[in-house]
Amino acid sequence: MIKIAWDPIYAHPLPEGHRFPMVKYELIPEQLLYEGAISITNLFSPKPVAEANILLAHDAMYWEQLRDLTLPAKEQRRIGFPLSAKLVERELRIAQGTIDGALYALQFGIAFNVAGGTHHAGSNWGEGFCMLNDQAIAASYLLKKGLVGKVLTIDLDVYQGNGTAEIFANEPRVFTFSMHGEKNFPFRKENSDLDIGLEDATNDGIFLGMLRRTLPILLEQEPDFVFYLAGVDVLSSDKLGKLSLSKAACKERDRLVLQFCKDHSLPVQVSMGGGYSPAIKDIVDAHCNTFKVGIDIFD
Fold first, then answer.
1. Residue 208: count of CB within 10 angstroms of its CB
2. Contacting residues for 31 by C-beta, under 8 A, at least 6 apart
3. CA 100 and chain centroid, separation
4. Closest Cα to residue 298, out of 271, 252, 272, 267?
5. Bridge pairing between strands 225-229 and 151-155
6. Where would you tag: which of 37, 40, 68, 228 has the fewest CB atoms within 10 A of its CB?
7. pLDDT tens digits for 88-101?
8. Residue 119 in contact with residue 130, Cβ under 8 Å?
9. How confident is the model at residue 68 (pLDDT cuts 50, 70, 90)?
10. CA 215 to chain centre
């Protein structure tokens, strides 16, 4: 049974005209259910994550400022969302959804979170619509519990996974890989264990060729668990991403990563990451392809 973390709280109301496409968190499960790709039994609603698990990846002072809604206004602007108790609860449930998903992946091979991929959140900061780093929290949880020995993060969002890189900079049990637009946000990059910076307008062939060559290199790290961040802001239609991938290439990207995990018996948790195409259908279709590819490979 492939499990997918989702809760109505994921679609948090934002001010009119906000550029973040929050409605996608309603539309993704709706479309998957409508198409018959999943049933309601695949979905589960996560509880809020425990504070002790947050502190495996984040500094106490930063977390307490989020929790108590005392984060300075400048830091709130850096995140890009108006801070509220409901928004913090949303983040807590997303993080627990990724922990639960990781546990389900150990059992069933793969699991998904409809949201998550909040890779810009570092140990003591949030930015770029990211407040708590769901995959970093979940990776730290698996290691803390002794459930895995070495973790690989595969981050193929168009933006570098700077927060994830910073959190695990001195953790040899986590190998961080990010392939991203070199000249795009964040403009001050952190050092992942392996960074591949892509030029603006990188096309299907260059992107997929680079990924095919890199995946065998990642296997040399001998991971026993993978966290995959499948952002769809790599699409040519994305208004912020600056790359030139077709929807078909984005789907093939997912197939390459998830088949790699399946072929090498690597459990994988998948979080969705970003996407800012003007047409919400392009975002939702590309995200739904990630689910459908994973289900086809693992089910």
1. 17
2. 284, 285, 288
3. 14
4. 267
5. parallel
6. 40
7. 999 999 999 999 99
8. yes
9. very high
10. 18
